[in-house]
TrEMBL record:
<protein>
    <submittedName>
        <fullName>Aspartyl/glutamyl-tRNA amidotransferase subunit A</fullName>
    </submittedName>
</protein>
<dbReference type="Pfam" id="PF01425">
    <property type="entry name" value="Amidase"/>
</dbReference>
<dbReference type="InterPro" id="IPR020556">
    <property type="entry name" value="Amidase_CS"/>
</dbReference>
<dbReference type="InterPro" id="IPR023631">
    <property type="entry name" value="Amidase_dom"/>
</dbReference>
<dbReference type="InterPro" id="IPR000120">
    <property type="entry name" value="Amidase"/>
</dbReference>
<dbReference type="InterPro" id="IPR036928">
    <property type="entry name" value="AS_sf"/>
</dbReference>
<feature type="domain" description="Amidase">
    <location>
        <begin position="8"/>
        <end position="405"/>
    </location>
</feature>
Amino acid sequence: MKKEISRDLLLDGIPYVLKDNISTHNIYTTASSRMLQDYLPLYDAHVVQLLKQSGACLIGKASMDELGMGSTNMTALTGPVYNPWDIRRIAGGSSGGCAAIVASGLVPFAIGSDTGDSIRRPAGFCGIVGMKPTWGRISRYGLIPYATSLDTLGAMTRSVKDMAIVLEKIAGHDQHDMTSSRVEVPQYKQCLSLDISNLKIAVIRNVYERLEDTRIKDIFKSCVSLLKKSGATIYEIDFPENYLQVLYPVYHIIANGEATSHHACLDGIKYGFQDKGKTIEELIVNTRTHGFHPHTKQRFILGALALKQENQNKMFRKAQKVRRLIVEEVQKIFRDYDIIIVPNGEGIAPLVDEAQDLSHTIVDDFLIMANLAGIPSLTLPCGFVDGMPVAIGIMGRCFDEQTVLNCAYALE
Ligand code: GLN
């Protein structure tokens, strides 16, 4: 008699790694911070539970920028992560360890988190697929937060099909995260389709035209031609210039403001590493002074400034209002178009020595849009410049991950 196989075995026995800000029962979860270097969670994050159920095997926790703050992975307690394509270059961050491990072929997938670009930036630098789904699509239960109104868990894989398989396993409602959505999770892999002939794709002209490297611009244009050849209709549109200019400051005020509030508990008394002090105040000051990377402390200073009572209206609340206006603009685009495409960033992975001051251009900043608006966004490798991978960013409507995946599948 034939034996019934009751569950799909696509991930059974498949090894994977987790970014080290995702809680694992009795396995250190440090968020690459000295402050949490001895933290042993008492429970598994929801994604970890789901992956366990599907038979996937966790083989390690991967380095990241401290608490997820950064794009370079240079602030990790364990030092930088090198790019497998050229070890003189960075893997990017903050999910840099995950990206390097997947890109070097050690595991077929990793789970990271993305608050501004942290799955998609390193995925682009390392030539792999990275996806941040809709905010609320995946439970954040067990994720050490960076900024909860922007944080999204997501996957990093070497193909779009693998992305569809993993996403299907980790998406869905969870009673432990009241912001996780009840919107039904489609069968992403089964619904993958190369037919994109009915898609209306918006190319953001005033973003891609800013690309200074003509080689990257040419790769981007050839992706657009390929989508056109596959039957999609391409429209060139401009995003309001005044909003593009403020994307980065708006994001930083909100992200660092939220982070400052979330991490006020890391004081050596309630949680984490503890330094010495004659008084409680001195102990907290010494703990936070020595427990965090200088870059992280800068973020807390900015966050505290924005949250200070006398500044709240002119900084934090103002940033929230501008965020709303930007989101309305994105929603307007999705009334007419199904997909937005942009370059994944300005350039290839920088050299380690030059990575401390990663430049921020409007082309780089556009990825943040997906977090401000909560929309799904996928990074797809699409060419090479100087032997290093270059990628394209594909964004879709809220909860329409399928169309984003299909568009990437057609382009892959
Ligand atoms: N690079 C952005 C920052 O440093 C986003 C990081 C992230 O997505 N976690 O805030």
